[in-house]
Amino acid sequence: MAIDSDVLVVGGGLAAITSAIAAAREGADVRLVSHKASTLRQASGLIDALGYVPATEPAKPLREGPPTAGRELDRDEWPDPEGPLADPFEAIDRLPETHPYRVLGADALREGLALFDDLAGDAYRGGHTDSNALLPTFGGSVKPTARYPAAAEAGLASDDRPALIVGFRSLTEYDARAFAGRLEAAGVPFDVAGAEVEFAEAFRADTKVTRLAKALDHDEEIGGAPAREALAKAVGPHLHDVVDEAGGVDRVERVGFPAFLGDDRGDEVRAELADRLGADVFEIPMGPPSLPGLRLEDRLYDALDAEGVRFETGNPVVGIETESDGRIETVAVDRKGRETPYGADAFVLATGGLVGKGLDSDRESVREPIFDLHVEQPADRYEWFVDDAFGDQPYARFGVRIGEGARALDADGEPEYDNVFAAGGVVGGADAAREKSASGVSLATGIAAGRRAATEATQ
Amino acid sequence: MTRHTDDGDAEEGNGTDGERDDGTEPPASPGVPEAGRDEQPSIFVPDDGEVPEAGSDDGLGAGPATGDGVADRAADRAATDGGVESATGGSDSTELDPDAYDPVDVFPGGDLDLREGADSCYKCTSCDTSCPVAEVDEEFPGPKFQGPEQWRLKRKDDHDIDESITSCSNCMRCDDACPSSVPLSQMHNEARGQFVEEQMEKLSREYIRNRILSNYRFFASIASKVPRLANAATKIPGAMKLGEKVLGIAGDREFPDFATETFREWWKARGGAQVQNPGKRVAYFHGCYSNYNTPEVGKAMVRVYEHFGYEVMVPPQKCSGTPMFANGMLKDARRHAETNVENLVEAIGEGADVIASCTSCSLSLRQEYPELFDIHGIEDVSEHTYEALEYLRINEDLEGELAGTELADEQAFAYHAPCHARNQGLSRQAVETFRDVDGVEMEDVGDSCSGISGTYGWKAEKYEKSMEIGAEMFEHMEDAEGDVGMTECPTCAMQMEHGTGYEVEHPLQLLEDAVGA
Fold first, then answer.
1. Based on the domain organization, do A351 and A383 belong to the same domain?
2. Domain boundaries, chain B
3. Quick check: A311 contacting B, CB < 8 Å?
4. Angstrom distance (rounded) from CA B215 to CA B320
5. Is pTM, for the whole model, over 0.80?
6. Domain B2-30+259-394 is in which class?
7. Are B427 and A314 in contact (CB < 8 Å)?
8. Residue range(s) defining the domain that contains residue A370
9. Which of A211, A302, A305 should we substitute to test contact with B (largest number of B Cβ atoms within 10 Å)?
10. Which of A1, A39, A211 sits opposite B179 (nearest CB)?
């Protein structure tokens, strides 16, 4: 006996959640199955739509000859990507034809972002405009992004108020002074200084950020004072560290922290720090482990619950169990060694790309392991990549090709199955890392796949 | 098959299973693999005979035992021993088919080779972020260190296992968090076993305390012979304080009550199974807690399954090993596993699937058993084991059965999903199952850990941390509308009750009410 639903979504990240909710809102009975805890917890929490249009052709054409000959190209021979883009929507036409934005149209992105705005509520900003915002990121660069956490709002790079960036000696992967220096080098329109303060010293050197967040959430005693007060006291002496061009000293109006200012009670922690410091407080999105990602995960899984979507985490979907007449009927879920059939009228595949393991590869080929959907790729693996690490890597665009309604296509461009749709990183055609488009692709493909899957299932 | 249901108690009792340890082979049923025998020799346990041996019965050889372990091969190799593919796939042969062998096979006999797992780690730190202990205890270096990093370090012969491994509560959330399928809990279990075996002072208070905590079943079986006396004893003023002083068992905890009639006593008194159905059989793994402390959960399991037409078998069984894994007592766990595997394999041979009502028991049989032990038939047990509600959701039209049912008295529940339920994909099943039952409101109190993690929260030095981890759950329970708690895990239930004063039920009890079983 199979575990049945109208729509079965395979995956647990942003694309999976988006498609599950989109399908549920069309009236479908939806189940989401995720092998592992959501990858949102590794995400920065920023929702990018399209920040750059990378060149897809080198400035000089590849030389004729065997495959290896073309790999002598120098990075300088590639044109710089176009951007940062002010408006992601107007640039969609300049993306390759097989890009999911081109296939689904700008409206899919617009509707996906609107759904996200609805789910994220007041925890996110940026929904008031089509334009990208510029956010300082963990690496000290400035990133164009479509939506950002309210906690990061005071950190906007377009804001000209002087800023202090706070760091902690024990947080080794995050150097506040280097960070401030890089922001200056990037030409931000505000004066900035970095300072290392003593706060996290009360903890041992490799304390997890979750521990610091918890201490601030609960306002635990740190060295005789409540944590929030202790942190404000440590920052206090540096509020005049910023020196402007004329050599004058201004009191900073905003203070940036690595993103660990509380977990459940982040708003409360930021408000109290701002009050004590007399300056706005913002978080700088970090790489994993990422509190903003964890907070977004919590919020979106609560939304799944509220929409009546059933979900389970812990067991992988391992393959097709039964099919007939070009339709998948059941897939097999590996429940600790025993395969159990899960049936649905429509399936959404949202298992991620090469890093997320939605695509599998060896020396022979790149495959989509669950439905064995077609993945377009050169037969010679030396053509999967170019030498320039930052160049137009062919593998970055590997993935399942989709057609209208995010239906998965076969090698001839025809639907591989009548009831299988694909969303997010598993979809090919986008170079998400260079375009800064990962979240937007997940939202656009997610909403398209979810809605069409619901139609397919309920008709 | 009636042996299971008739004289189970005698078989199940302590120390009466000695005949297996004498070296006599269990009688093999046709088509059923012989249980309790090793496929391969074990690994890290030195064979110089100097390792303290706990003895071959349930007794607690707390100090260096005088055991005659030499004669007893099985008891000699107690620790992890490889985890080959399956009961039928192990290679006794010295000749390896180059097309068929697993890379594990090329390492010396039985070594638990976790290199592939260590190499799969790409340092994303998701495991650390999901660790409930690291969230409150900065002295704990987190699962990434305990797993892949420590595994690499201890490739060097002279490298000790870091003592912090004993702070891991074995909640196994890291397994679920890892996007790269690194077998973190397996690495932790192995390192912890090695630490306890080779580095822990066997006369230390901590060792004795941990041994006692992990062998809960042994003490419960004695206490339940005189339940009223035992219950009274734990309530004597100062008794728990004494336990804290002498043994380091958290004095603020209330010791669980022992039932005046154990589940197995009840089962025997009712004459065993009331439904005979060779086509639909299940073997109930009740575990220790449902037997000695909450037999109402076991009774609910039996009534619900009989309602659905199943023939319930109750094979002889011992501890699933969960508390032993968490304390690195792998020899104890292995000894109990031999009994469990032997009897469960026999039930499987008679057409049964194995059903546990405790999510830690089911996880142990499914995941830790084949990961850590190489007992003949252990893979079969793993593949045939399910949690009770899960099995019904897969094999019965539970939704159809529950649609339109109504609970006599309206009740709202604050449901907590145990960590071990998460790894089996079960964290939402109670909420989803009862969603359509009139009169039931089931609220998920969130994804935090209860903090008790079996024996972790019972240790005096961990008590504060345990309550700190649990704080979020307590808060969410108070915020929830329901004033009755619900969870599948008996120790989570203990913690929920301890932190909020709520009465806590098992989903099977609610299901029993809802279907009128």
1. yes
2. 2-30+259-394, 69-91+99-198, 205-247, 405-515
3. yes
4. 11
5. yes
6. mainly alpha
7. yes
8. 3-118+295-458
9. A211
10. A39
Residue range B405-515, CATH number: 3.40.50
CATH number of B69-91+99-198: 1.10.1060.10
Does some domain include residue A123? no
pLDDT of residue A424: 98
Q: Which of A255, A284, A313 is the last residue of a domain?
A: A284
Burial (CB < 10 A; 0-12, 13-18, 19+), residue B251, is: middle
Q: What is the average per-residue pLDDT within B43-71?
A: 40
Q: pLDDT class for A86, splitting at 50, 70, 90?
A: very high
Interface contact A181, partner B, CB < 8 A: no
Contact B136 A214 (CB under 8 A): yes
pLDDT tens readout for residues B438-485: 999 999 998 899 999 888 998 999 999 999 999 999 999 999 999 999
Mean pLDDT for the stretch of residues B58-65: 40
pLDDT at B71 over 60: no
> Could you tell me if B136 and B465 are in contact, meaning their C-beta atoms sit under 8 angstroms apart?
yes
Q: Which one of A288, A298, A313 has the shortest CB-CB distance to B176?
A: A313
Q: Output the pLDDT for position B72.
A: 40
Higher-pLDDT residue of B350, B399? B350
Chain B contacts in chain A segment 148-177 (CB below 8 A):
none
Residue of A4, A31, A294, A335 for testing the chain B interface, max B β-carbons within 10 Å: A335
Query: Which pLDDT tens digit goes with each residue over A255-296?
Result: 999 999 999 899 999 999 999 999 999 999 887 778 999 999
A304 contacts on B by Cβ (under 8 Å): none
Q: How many percent of chain A have pLDDT more than 90?
A: 73
Residue A126 forms part of a structural domain: no
**Are A318 and A260 in the same domain?**
no
Of B141, B384, B428, which is closest to A310 when you measure between CB atoms?
Answer: B428
A272 and A154 in a common domain? yes
- Mean predicted lDDT score pLDDT of chain B: 81
Domain count for chain A: 2
Per-residue pLDDT tens for A338-367? 899 999 999 999 999 998 899 999 989 999
What chain B residue is nearest to A333 in terms of C-alpha separation?
Answer: B425
Judged by average pLDDT, the poorest of A443-452, B49-58, B198-207 is B49-58
Same-domain status, A447 and A305: yes
Mutate to test the interface with A, among B280, B308, B382, B428 (most CBs of A within 10 A): B428
Residue type, A162: P
Quick one: which of B84, B78, B3, B82 has its CA closest to B47?
B78
